Amino acid sequence: MSEFDLISRYFATKFPQRPDVDLGIGDDAAVCTIPPNMQLVTAIDTLVADVHFPLTTKPEDIGYKALAVNLSDMAAMGATPVWMTLALTCPEFNEVWLQKFSEGLLEIAQLNQVSLIGGDTTRGPLTITIQIAGLVPSNTVLKRNGAKPGDSIYVTGTIGDAGLGLQAVKQQIVLSKLAKKYTLSRLNRPTPRLAEGQKLLKVANSAIDISDGLVADLGHILKASNVGASLQIDNLPLSNELLESVPYEVAIELALSAGDDYELCFTIPESEILPINSCTYIGKIETDLGLRCVTKTGDIFIPKANGYQHF
Amino acid sequence: MSEFDLISRYFATKFPQRPDVDLGIGDDAAVCTIPPNMQLVTAIDTLVADVHFPLTTKPEDIGYKALAVNLSDMAAMGATPVWMTLALTCPEFNEVWLQKFSEGLLEIAQLNQVSLIGGDTTRGPLTITIQIAGLVPSNTVLKRNGAKPGDSIYVTGTIGDAGLGLQAVKQQIVLSKLAKKYTLSRLNRPTPRLAEGQKLLKVANSAIDISDGLVADLGHILKASNVGASLQIDNLPLSNELLESVPYEVAIELALSAGDDYELCFTIPESEILPINSCTYIGKIETDLGLRCVTKTGDIFIPKANGYQHF
Question: What is the pLDDT of residues B98-122, one digit of tens each?
């Protein structure tokens, strides 16, 4: 089977069709129309086998996650995702693998009405790069650099779960059946907080998604905004599955540093009404630079790790 | 050095700045504005080490070519390139390699005024994926599927040179110093035919860039347009360097099947005035399906290979 048959069999026809895609897969490039008064938002993210996911990961989960992490970038900007392009490098043409990979990718694409408008398939070590495009009403996009002293800091959902799931996959910990199922789902099929991001437009001063860990990613907001923060670590939203599986201190470390949860961290002026429910207050933006983690008894807490470093 | 330092040192600041980029590198995604009455054109292409380029290729040439092949897709659509995102996977943080890679990328980006608006750097086997965005006036884009019986078929520049260069790199052939220099330049630093593509808007019925070989790529036009063609193989534009280095029949085979030249192949109604000079008439679109290669004596010629197959 040629590269071209491969693309058309697995990818070209099954994905959501959108009226703003004027020319999709099958030419040298895709052609789309952007509505007036909207800005284009684009990001690109790569998953490398054995680096971003263990080699034992199911192909349908790889397909799902590859798009999920890109959608999470759209969520952090408050954008509505519309189209993607896929660069898939795989060591061989494995029909079963490709079918399952495309099923996972298709599932999350359908959930979010994202069209697949182009791609490139190449031979080589397994690497999946997705480039996502989204739209926002002009001049409303959420950025990292708008945090102001006095802003309240919130995080959606719970954090630390994916980190625990990764420990279980690596057989560094044995979990209960329920905890394993839950944390693996969090690791392999993260939920991009798209609806939450869109509701935060015009309300939040800054936002980011938590891919490298709360300390690292909140750190990006602080650096870009030239502010500091104090974090109430006993306020961190931890799942029951996490709390039941490891000592409290370990749960806190995972929540602060493990990453891969793809929740949103955002800051919002105290005067604004919170437009979403599923989020937790975790601290305050301050004038003093740096991040101070504080326990409920007022003690300073120093996290052991600072988030995922790629090199 | 962290991933973030790496991005800002080598990539964030040096590339052409454009007024339509509202938010560039450094957030979760980039934000751009599309002018009214223009369509967005996007493509994505991956180069894998030891598959798309030999491991001995200079990093500055890898950087140059990674963007060149994407720009060639823009040329084939008649689009003007504007922005790119880069997904770079490399096995280690090698400062010398990264600097040289970014120099090559920067050189061709500056030549074509392309902004680098985002990226992802990951650890893994060397793989470079670039996603390119371009603009065309609405409803003028060049497609593969518009070829009509009676159209004249043209190709820009000369073809077969990059294929000969690859044979030299692989030490399958010994070339004169001049021929080696020329064909390696064609292999490592292809020239995307952007000006030619833009001039063909509203004139050509179909266009494609030659990445997999003339037979394979013209074949895509024929299939998409549901037509056939006859090709005058003795008309194929061959460089002196190619003709001096190999027997005529080998030169023809390289021109038909080797690929990697990134010239444009396009079809144009006989009644239209050719809007560019640097191109050669090579055949006619016909109603009968299939591709017929004919010599100047009228004999049928059957190419040995059919173009690059990725799997």
Answer: 999 999 999 999 999 999 999 888 8
**pLDDT tens-digit series, residues A261-282:** 999 999 999 999 999 999 999 9
Q: B49 contacts in A (CB within 8 Å)?
A: 124
| Whether residue B292 is found in the same domain as residue B182 | yes
- How far is the C-alpha of B51 from the C-alpha of A301, rounded, in Å? 49
**pLDDT tens digit string along A178-191?**
999 999 999 999 99
B219 CB contacts (<8 Å, ≥6 apart)? Answer: B291, B306, B307
What whole-number distance in Å separates Cα of residue A126 and Cα of residue A240?
35
The answer as to whether B59 is a domain residue is: yes
Q: Is the pLDDT of residue B310 over 60?
A: no
Phi, psi dihedrals of residue A105, rounded to the nearest 5°: -65, -45
DSSP A17: P
- Of the three residues B137, B160, B193, the one that is the final residue of a domain is B137
Q: How far is B302 from chain A (nearest CA, A)?
A: 20
Min Cα–Cα distance to chain A from B149, Å:
20
A13 compared with A277, residue with greater pLDDT: A277
Cβ distance of A39 and B29 shorter than 8 Å = no
Cβ–Cβ gap A26/B79 under 8 Å: no
Nearest beta carbon to residue B79 from set A2, A29, A79: A29
Distance CA B115, CA B24 (A): 9
Pair B281, B213 in one domain: yes
Q: Do B41 and A30 touch (CB under 8 A)?
A: yes
Identify the CATH number of the domain in which residue B267 sits.
Answer: 3.90.650.10
The range of the structural domain enclosing residue A109 comes to 3-137
List chain B residues with CB under 8 Å of A50.
124
- CATH number for the domain spanning A19: value is 3.30.1330.10
What domain count does chain B have? 2
